[in-house]
Structure formats: C-alpha cells, structure tokens
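Let us work through a complete example step by step.
Step 1: write down the sequence.
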Amino acid sequence: QVQLVESGGGFVQPGGSLRLSCKASGLNFKLANMGWYRQAPGRQRELVAISKADGTADYADPVKGRFTISRDNVYRTSYLQMNNLKPEDTAVYYCNTNWRSREFWGQGTQVTVSA
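Step 2: predict the structure and record it as tokens.
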C-alpha cells in the first residue's frame, strides 16, 4: 500500500520560507512522478509543482521563480522549497502520486502566511 506522509508546514510571515517534505513508501519511488497540490479555503485543489521520474519538473504560474520541487530517490522523499511566501500561498498542501493507475494523497500540511 502506497503511503505519503507530509511534514514541514507552519506559520510564516510574508517574504519568509518553508520547506515541505513528503516521505513515500510502498512504491518504486524513482519511477514515480511526485506532485504537490494545495487547497485554500473555499477553493478547489490545485497543482503547485510536479517532479517527474525523468528528472524534469513543472510549476504552476503563481509559484514560478519562488518554489522549487526536488526529490531524493534514495530516501524516497519529495521536497517543496517555498521562498518569498505570500498571503495567497496560505493553504493545505498535499503530496500526490499516481502509481499503477491509482492516485494517492498524503494527509496534508497547513501553510499559513500572515503578518
């Protein structure tokens, strides 16, 4: 069974930084695309960034130049480095993967950006 466990959320002032981690188990991590999504109150869940098994990455326009997704295939962990955070980045952030035609989600970690 695939499990994804996020950590690293918290409260930060505008302009600050946070790094989220997603520890994966139950899959061949180096073959999996790993994504980060977020959901703000009253809004739909949206893709933030994706790290593909081929080593490439894609970002949503609102986070380009501020967020960096990375992965450690040895420790089976995906990271989302978030810099220059803005109040509109406030959301619950979820780790995601699609493995063997099934979609899996982590439990989510809250990120709050406020003065």
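Step 3: interpret the result. The CA atoms of residues 23 and 77 lie 4 Å apart.
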